[in-house]
Amino acid sequence: MTLRNISLILVALVLAAVPVFAGSIQTFMAIVFAKSLAVLGIILLLQAGQVSFGHGMFFATGAYTVAFLGRYLGGGDLVLLVAAGLVTSLVLGVAVGLFVVRYRYIFFGMLNLAFSMVLYSILEKFFHLTGGSDGVRIRRPTFLGQTFDRGQFDTVIYYATLVMALGAAILVWRYLKSPLGQALKAIKTNETRLEYIGLSARSVLLVGYVISAVLCGLGGASLGIIQGIATPEYTYWTRSSEFVFIAILGGIGNVAGALTGSLVYEAVRTYAAAFVADSWQLILGFVLLVIILRAPEGIVGLATSMAERRRASRAVETGK
């Protein structure tokens, strides 16, 4: 077993032990896991050199699916609600993706932004159905038919989001290593050569786009259940920009950047807001400036580079 695998297992064990030894932060960590799912979708698209400023629409789709279905079922079951959020975000991802994958770069980003703002307006204006800016309340669901009180359910949703976040990270990592994932990266470097070998760049990008939409939908469904509400703010442009911000902060070259960036972002936002009131955005701005100027590969990339330099230094010292 490699050192990397051992490290991953240790990280998973530490995270699994959080409700036992640090129960007070389990809701905070569940929010981190939920957002990391959406950021993972953004990182996936960035492999093809495409930036979306509208993936909040899939985030909101997952949350509102949970809200409406839960209201119809009188609460519903966690597994069913999350699965429904996955399906609706997949359907919307295919519908929007068939149109936007024909465009690249700024046009790709702006079209996604336009779609997300259309959805935002619909959610705001149809208040008799969507609750307008107040949103829709999400009742606490059961889990596999079992009912839990607030404290017990916080632990259930923590482990559910942890499993989804780690499982999604592994699946995306394997996808990016596959021939289809390599083709997705080729769109960024030389799309024409991809066409020469018989692969449709649009089809390759569409697959990546739909996967990213599903990841955002899962994140939105999870965060909606955690917070107990779905609001139009989930699809507002600031939410989509937040995902891009976190992806750059954590590092776009590694799937671990999604979880790392989400953890640092939420920690700075939570604790900076507690100490400097309304100025936490200023602190986040400085953090992002330092990352871009001093470590453009993000926090994970910086840590990887430091580890490689340390290994090289040791090799020189030992004469190997």
Q: What's the SSE blueprint?
A:
Blueprint: H1 3-16, H2 18-21, H3 26-46, H4 56-73, H5 78-100, H6 105-125, H7 127-130, E1 136-137, H8 150-177, H9 179-196, H10 201-227, E2 229-230, H11 237-250, H12 256-276, H13 280-294, H14 298-318
Antiparallel strand pairs: 1-2
Helix pairs in contact: 3-8, 3-10, 3-11, 3-12, 4-5, 4-10, 5-10, 8-9, 8-10, 9-10, 11-12, 11-14, 12-13, 12-14
Order of helices and strands: HHHHHHHEHHHEHHHH
- Rg over CA atoms, rounded to whole Å, is 20 Å
Low-confidence stretches: none
What kind of sheet is the major sheet?
A: 2 strands, antiparallel
- The count of DSSP E runs of length 2 or more, i.e. the number of strands, is 2
What fraction of residues sit in β-strands? under 5%
Structural class assignment? mainly alpha
Alpha-carbon distance between the termini? 23 Å
The helix content, as a percent range, equals: over 70%
Report the mean per-residue pLDDT as an integer.
Answer: 85
Shape: globular
Placed side by side, the strands forming the largest sheet appear as 1-2
Number of helices: 14
